[in-house]
Design goal:
By secondary structure, the chain is an alpha+beta fold. The chain is built from 3 helices and 3 strands; from the N terminus they run βββααα. A 3-stranded antiparallel beta sheet has the order 1-2-3, with no helix packed on it. The protein is elongated.
Length: 86
């Protein structure tokens, strides 16, 4: 039998308990030290390759609305990425 030790994604503590499942069916955990909930293997946000691809497409001068429709991201997200890249 293999015992896997989990730790909190936010603070690194091993004092966590199961806390139900998210809408996609992944196990959620609650940290008793920091009080925050997290997933087992979180997949938040976009990969750096995907961000670079979208920003490169924007440099070819289509509109922000066009980019958001084509790639399925919000204009606010694109705006934040553009501010960080400048």
């Amino acid at each position: 039998m293999v015992i896997e030790i989990k730790s909190c994604y936010h603070c690194g503590s091993q004092n966590i308990v199961k806390n139900g499942k998210d809408p996609k069916g992944k196990q959620r955990y609650l940290c008793k030290d920091c009080g925050r909930a997290s997933l087992d293997n979180p997949n938040y946000g976009y990969s750096e390759e995907r961000k670079a691809e979208i920003l490169k497409a924007y440099q070819e001068r289509p509109s922000m609305r066009g980019i958001s429709r084509i790639y399925g991201i919000s204009r606010n997200t694109l705006k934040k990425w553009l501010k960080k890249s400048i």
